Amino acid sequence: MMQNKEVKLRKTQKSDLEFFFQFQLDKEASYLAAFTPKDPTDKEAYFEKYTKHLNDPTINMQTILVDATIAGSIAKFEMEGDAEITYWIDKKFWGQGIATIALKNLLIVESARPIFGRVAFDNIGSQKVLEKCGFVKVGEDRGFANARQAEIEEFIYKLE
User: Fold this and answer.
1) What pLDDT digit, counting tens, does each position of 8-63 carry?
2) What are the two backbone dihedrals, phi and then psi, of residue 140, each rounded to the nearest 5 degrees?
3) Which of 14, 16, 32 is nearest to 91 (CA)?
4) Alpha carbon separation from 71 to 67, 102, 114, 144 (Å, rounded)
5) H-type helices in the chain, by residue range?
6) Could you give the CA distance from residue 60 to residue 108 in angstroms, rounded to a whole number?
7) 5: pLDDT confidence band, cut at 50, 70 and 90?
8) Predicted TM-score (pTM) of this structure
9) Which residues contact 130 (CB under 8 A, 6 or more apart)?
């Protein structure tokens, strides 16, 4: 797993967005995330959206570092008055427990409760991350997943 590697969070900087943009271009990762932008290759739209997020006081965007390498992103945001979390791990760091450690670290500094996480029905890895961090499956929803060009089921998790 994470032998002798240090996982840290730090406030996301604009220069980190280039890494995040590249991560989300990965086809397999995008498929698992499912709910992605209509055109993930539109760099201008990506930078415009996430630069605004950096300055939004309701969004806590953090960069996940493994040792000194950017390994992903994690954020708390608000949707329809509810706190939600989202994260994205660079594929080369999958299966190492990094998302779990990053989420546990975020939950220490982010006190909003209840807090929700949504995950595609077949994204088992992400479901395990939420469950290891104390989230409980509380519902299901359906939505159009741009990465799959289809309506799919998603599971809703909640941490009290």
Assistant:
1) 999 999 999 999 999 999 999 998 888 888 898 999 999 999 999 999 999 999 99
2) -135, 155
3) 32
4) 9, 10, 27, 27
5) 17-23, 27-33, 43-54, 98-109, 124-132
6) 13
7) confident
8) 0.92
9) 103, 117, 119, 157
pLDDT in tens, 68-110: 999 999 999 999 999 999 999 999 999 999 999 999 999 999 9
Instruction: Count CB neighbours of 9 within 10 A.
Output: 20
Q: Which residue has the tokens 């989202």?
A: 86
b/e burial code for range 53-77 (CB count within 10 A of at least 16 → b)? eeeeeebbbbbbbbeeebbbbbbbe
In the structure encoding, which two tokens stand for residue 112, read together? 């909003």
Domains and CATH numbers, the chain: 7-159 (3.40.630.30)
- Sign, CA dihedral 135-141-144-149, equals positive
